[in-house]
Amino acid sequence: MNKTEVGARGVVRPRKFWNTARKDAAIGWLFLAPEFLGMLVLGVFPIVFSLYLSLCDWNLVGGL
User: Fold this and answer.
1) Cβ(17)–Cβ(29) under 8 Å?
2) Is the separation of the CB atoms in 6 and 12 below 8 Å?
3) N or C: which end of the chain has fewer CB within 10 A?
4) Most distant CA pair in the chain: distance in Å?
5) String of b and e for 19-57 (b: at least 16 CB within 10 Å)?
6) Residue 46 has pLDDT above 80, yes or no
7) Residue 38 CA to chain centroid, in angstroms?
8) Lowest mean pLDDT among 10-14, 19-23, 39-43
9) Three-class secondary structure of residue 14 per DSSP
10) Of residues 58 and 49, which shows the higher confidence score?
11) Which letter does DSSP use for residue 56 in this model?
């Protein structure tokens, strides 16, 4: 179902996709994106990499 709104003269027109609420939400997610990337790189990646190293036959002196 297509949502519509009534204009000043009673003309029915479709709603715009980028209304003020959607723009504000998108801007908020863009401001949060660096924090999420930082958590991923500094938090999740070391945990996953240490799990990988624990499951491999890895020589501490020989390197990766």
Assistant:
1) no
2) yes
3) N
4) 79
5) eeeeeeeeeeeeeeeeeeeeeeeeeeeeeeeeeeeeeee
6) yes
7) 12
8) 10-14
9) strand
10) 49
11) S
